[in-house]
Specification:
Oligomer: single chain
Mean pLDDT: 96
Number of domains: 1
Helix content: 25-40%
CATH class: Alpha Beta
Low-confidence stretches: 1-7
Strand content: 15-25%
Order of helices and strands: EEEEHEHEHEEEEEHEHHHH
Largest sheet: 7 strands, mixed
Number of strands: 12
Number of helices: 8
Length: 317
Amino acid sequence: MSSSPQAAALPAPPRVEEVSDGVYAYIQPDGTWWINNSGFLAGRTRVTAVDACATEARTRAFLAAIAQTAGQPVRTLINTHHHGDHTHGNYLFGEATIVAHERCREEIVNAGQAGLALIAASGVWTEVDWGAIEVAPPFLTFTDRVSVYADDLRCEVSYVGTPAHTTNDAVVWIPDRGVLFSGDLLFNGGTPFLLMGSVTGAITAVTALKALGARTIVPGHGPVCGPSVIDDVVDYLNFVLAVATEGSAAGLSALDAAREADLGAFAELTDSERLVGNLHRAYAELAGAPPGAPIDLAAALGDMIAFNGGRPLTCLA
C-alpha cells in the first residue's frame, strides 16, 4: 500500500494540561511531522521545561504559555533528544541551563547551522516557516542519568541505555507523581520513527519503561495517555521487525516491503510513510549493522517520499 495525503486543515492550537500539581504538559495537535509535545514544572521561583519546539513561532508560543501559567522564569531546559522539533527553539530560552545526554549535544554541534539550512532546503517536507533559528546545544551533559529538582520535586533524567528513537534518547521521570515525559520513545496516535536509532533497541528501551510504573505519560507526540501506550508502541515495533524479516528474506527492497505490508491495526496511525524509514533501519540491522549505526538517510527519506506518491511529506508546523 502507499500513503495517502493528509488533509491540509490546520491543527488545533496548543494547549496546557496540568497532569499533576505544578506539572504541565504542553500538547501541540496534531502531533504529526515536527509538531511535538513539551512540558514544564512550575516551582515557587523558577520553571524547569522539557523540550523546545520546532519553529521560532511555536517556541515563542510555548514560552508565552509558561509565563501565563507559571509566572516565573525558565531556569532549566531538558532536551530528551537532539531532533529539531525538540531542540530548534533552545536558543529562545535565554540564560536557562540546557541539559541533555552527551550525544545529544554532539549531534546538534556536528549538524550546526548548516544542518538547519539543509532541513529547510531539503524538499522532504511541505514548506514550513522555521523562523530565525539559531543553534543552541546543551551545555550541561550526562552519560547515564542526572537528577533535576523543581523545588523539592525530583526529576530523574535518564539515558535509555541503547539507540532507540535516536542514539541519545532520555526520559524525564517524576517518581513521586508517577508522571513520565517519554520524549519520542512513545507516540500516541502517530507512527513511531526509528530511522536514526534502532528497531531492536527501541523494543528494549520501550519495554523497559513498564518497570517505572508510570500512571501518566506525556508522549513525544499525541495526547497525554496512560501506560497502555507502551504496549501499543511495542506492538508496532514488533510489526516493523516482522515485515523487515519477511521482506528481506523475499529479496524485497524496504520500499517494496512497505508497499506490500498490511498495516492492519496500525493503518489509522498518522505519518504512515515512516514505515519505510523504519524498514531501512531494520534492514540495516538484519544485515549486521549495530544499533544506531549511520545509514543512508537521503535514500530512506527519498523512499518515504516515493511511498507518499512522490509528494513531499505533509508538515503543518
